[in-house]
Structure formats: structure tokens, C-alpha cells
Amino acid sequence: MGQKLRLPQLSIATAIVFFHRFYARMSYEHYDRFTVATTCLFLASKVEETPKKLKDVVIETFKTHHQDDKAPEPDSREFFELKEKILVCERILLQALAFDLSVEHAYRPLLAYVKSIKGTRDLAQVAWNFINDSLRTTICLQYAPRHLAAACCQMASRYLATHTKKEIQFPDAPKGGKWYTSFQTTEDIIHDITTQILGMYRERGGANTGGLSEAALSVLMSDKHIAPGDQGSSSAAAPASSLAASPANSATPTQPEVPADTAVKVEPKVKAEPSAAHAAPQEQATAVKAEPGVKQETALANGAAKRGHEGAGLEEGKVDGPPDAKRSRSDDA
Fold first, then answer.
1. What backbone phi and psi angles, to 5 degrees, belong to 145?
2. pLDDT of residue 175
3. pTM attached to this predicted model
């Protein structure tokens, strides 16, 4: 749905975080997942300042949900009821989120770190894809963005070592210590995040949203002992030539460029725990149809990685902006 609405990756990722937060407090039996997913997209588009008209949201989501049916006319009673359903659900969503609409993503600390070590475009691209795929899990509710960025950096280095046969060594932190201390994280946290993402791939048979090699992913999934400390043991900064890999061959999306002196943001909590939810009014709850027995997986999550940010392009072998949008998209609907 996010791709059909032409929303940038940041807005789609924010919508997915809203979705996970909502169902961390509410039940699938009481709230229709498709209506909630649509409402999350609508709300996230406004939060990230990429608003879409409610009319367009209703039409595109109706087409996605009912592929063989024609969308109702804008002046019809059915269309009016669909709009009202989303507006009612939006009020319930805001109450469930306690009106906390601030969301931090792992993309910024990832790009800041890759740029600081003069990493390659492919390193950023693969790590970007892993972040997108992590949105299929509830990692965004468990850990701060910097922890996810560190785990995806390590997974990207192991993936490229398998896929391109070139080892990648991350330099030690400027003030000493392992490379991951730049993210203010630990080996145990990285290991747990990596285990959850690989577990998700195992359940899906290696399916991913970024066009990653299933053979290389199979090697990662078969490695039951992933030691975060194995990467970045060198004391000297790795030259860009040692990180070289095949460059991306398609257009780079645009996004506000991350300054060279951007530091990885330190957040006070290791794990992000949701606050107590406000109880939704019973009369509003009846306005949303129930769909029981549904796993926490939606068409929204399937479209999470289909679009990239908007910003400056990348130079050959260096990272000055976000990875390639087309290489981080999925073929899923």
C-alpha cells in the first residue's frame, strides 16, 4: 500500500512502528488489522510531513484489499463509510499510542557510521535492506535504533563476505574498544537482534524484501554461532579499497544528507518499552470490524522495503546518502 501511495521509506517505516505499537496494547480480535494498517499509513504520512489525501488512501487501499473489485465512487455511501471508518480508527490509534508520535529509525545511525569509516555503497545498501526486513518483527519495540543499526552492519559485512568473497573488517572505536562501542551497544544485544532477524528468514524460507541472495542468506541462517566480536577486531581503520564491492547500478533515491560529523545518537534506554495504553471507548471499538486469529503480519509490513528515502546521491565507493531504492524494494504486493 505504501508504494502505491508513493510514500517514502521513512513514512512507511513509521507506519509499521505505529502498527506494532498498537497491537502491543490491543487485540487482533477487536480491531481489523487491514483497517488499522491503512490508518497507520494515513497517520504516518502526516507525521513525516508527506501527507496524502484521505480520498487517495481509501481508493488505493480498497484496490489492494479487493483486487478484483472496482473502487466505489467518491460520492457514494460506501465511500463515505470507508472514510469514516479510517477517521474513527485514527482516534483509537492515537489513544493507543498515548499521542506519542515520535519515532526514531536505524537508518540515520547506519549511514553516519558507514560514512565515518568510508564504507562502500554496497555495505550501506545491504545493511539498509536488513533494517527494512527487521520491520517484519517487533525488534523496533525491543531495542533502540542504534542497536539495530549495529546488528545490521555486522550482518551486512558477513553477507558481503559470503556473497563477494571479500572480508570486511570494521575499525576499532576512536577511543578504543570494539567497533560496536561506537553505537553504544554490546555483543549480547547484537547477537539477540541478529538471531531474531535470521529466525524470521528461516520461517520464511529465505524470502526477503531487498533482492538479497538467498544462497548467501542460507549461509548466515546455517551459522548458529554468530559472534559479534568477530567483526572489527583490527586496530587500524580499514581503507575504502578493502571494502570494495560491486557498485549499485540503478538510480539512488534522495534524502537529507547525513553530515560527515554526525555522531551516532546515544539513547538512554537499551530497550524501548511501550507506555501504558489508554483504553479505547467501547462504542468506538465496534466501528472497526474484527478479524480474529490473525498473525501479526500485514500487507503493510510486506511493503515496508519498497521505497527509499529522498536525498543526495552516492559517489562510487562512498556513502553520502541513502542506498539504492530499487535494490531495497520488494516484489511483494
1. -55, -35
2. 78
3. 0.66
